[in-house]
Amino acid sequence: MVADLKQRGLLDDTLVIWGGEFGRTPMVETNAALHRSKGRDHHPQAFTMWLAGGGIKPGITYGATDELGFNIAENPLHIHDIQATVLHLLGLDHERLTYTYQGASSA
């Protein structure tokens, strides 16, 4: 899809985002309570988002995990920062979309 967008001259104006709900643990886990003998569980400490086109500088990697892919080792990033980046790339100011409710900011 990205190659097709680039070939047609549409990649500069199209933001492509790929990401998962969570990461996956790097080892096989068992859990007798859940009747699971083999499997990989959700891993919310580290996950991957991939962006292309739409103003994203090609070839940039930001952040890293440890050698097992289990914990963040470099440049932790909050999901709010990812949302602010996407909104910026879409031409929106995330701060104008923020409101405070019961002491917490939401976007």
Describe it for me?
- This protein is of the alpha+beta class.
- Helices cover 16% and strands 23% of the residues.
- It has helices at 2-7, 79-89; strands at 15-19, 23-24, 42-43, 49-53, 64-65, 72-74, 99-101, 104-106.
- Strands 1-4 form a two-stranded antiparallel sheet.
- A hairpin with a 2-residue loop joins strand 7 and strand 8.
- The chain is extended, with a radius of gyration of 18 Å.
- The two termini are 30 Å apart.
- The relative contact order is 0.16.
- The mean pLDDT is 85.
Total number of beta strands: 8
SSE order, one letter for each helix or strand: HEEEEEEHEE
Mean pLDDT: 85
Q: Give unreliable regions as ranges.
A: none
Terminal-residue CA separation: 30 Å
Task: Bin the strand percentage.
Answer: 15-25%
Strand order across the biggest sheet? 1-4
Q: Give the biggest sheet.
A: 2 strands, antiparallel
**How many helices does DSSP assign?**
2
Q: By helix and strand content, what is the structural category?
A: alpha+beta
Helical content, roughly? 10-25%
Question: What integer value in Å does the Rg equal?
Answer: 18 Å
Overall body shape: extended
